[in-house]
């Protein structure tokens, strides 16, 4: 019953995000703020920082895949059932957030920042649509699920530092608006609560 209630609440949150993102009044105010932040970020770019943020942006797949695979391998080697179960929880949370992100992207179809505003110059031209950020949703799902499975500061701090860095990199590189990133983070975190029953 609790799972049904959490799923229902999460679906309400998704509907709120979608309806808010599609309302014209919200779009105009948020769009101006989004554009302003993106232009400020691009004006502060340096070659050194760009290299760092390109690297961080690419790490999302290594984290999203590496964390559950590492937990599974360690659980098999040490015959630790709890660790194997936690690897399933992390992997499922990340997969759920990725699926929801894909679905919302195809419903909202928000153009990338550099397409919507010619004053925004990206470091590279990403494909697909912009809302929400897939890198952000998957990295936050991985970080949150790992932190809920192992609620120790030395797990939580690095996990969220990594997820936050990946998320910031998407804005810095000019491929996602701040609101894309915020929605992605909400999706990632929310996915872990829906699948909480998988956590041991």
TrEMBL record:
What are the EC numbers? 3.6.1.27
Q: Which UniProt keywords apply?
A: Cell membrane, Hydrolase, Membrane, Signal, Transmembrane, Transmembrane helix
The record's subcellular locations are:
Cell membrane
Instruction: Look up the signal peptide feature and give its range.
Output: 1-26
Q: Indicate the segments forming the Phosphatidic acid phosphatase type 2/haloperoxidase domain, all copies.
A: 87-196
Q: Name one GO cellular component term.
A: plasma membrane
The superkingdom of the source organism is Bacteria
List all membrane-crossing ranges.
Answer: 88-108
Protein name, entry field: Undecaprenyl-diphosphatase
Q: Which organism is it from?
A: Mucilaginibacter lappiensis
């Amino acid at each position: 019953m609790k799972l049904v209630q959490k799923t229902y609440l999460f679906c309400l949150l998704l509907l709120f995000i979608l309806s808010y993102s599609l309302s014209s009044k919200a779009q105009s105010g948020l769009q101006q703020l989004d554009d302003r932040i993106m232009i400020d970020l691009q004006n502060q770019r340096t070659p050194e920082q760009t290299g760092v943020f390109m690297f961080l942006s690419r790490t999302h797949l290594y984290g999203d895949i590496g964390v559950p695979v590492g937990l599974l391998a360690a659980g098999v080697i040490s015959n630790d059932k709890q660790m194997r179960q936690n690897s399933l929880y992390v992997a499922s949370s990340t997969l759920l957030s990725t699926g929801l992100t894909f679905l919302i992207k195809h419903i909202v179809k928000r153009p990338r920042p550099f397409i919507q505003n010619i004053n925004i110059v990206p470091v590279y031209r990403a494909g697909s649509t912009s809302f929400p950020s897939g890198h952000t949703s998957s990295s936050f799902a991985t970080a949150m699920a790992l932190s809920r499975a192992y609620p120790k500061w030395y797990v939580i701090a690095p996990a969220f530092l990594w997820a936050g860095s990946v998320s910031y990199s998407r804005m810095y590189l000019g491929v996602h608006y701040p609101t894309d990133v915020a929605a992605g983070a909400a999706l990632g975190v929310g996915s872990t609560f829906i699948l909480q029953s998988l956590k041991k």
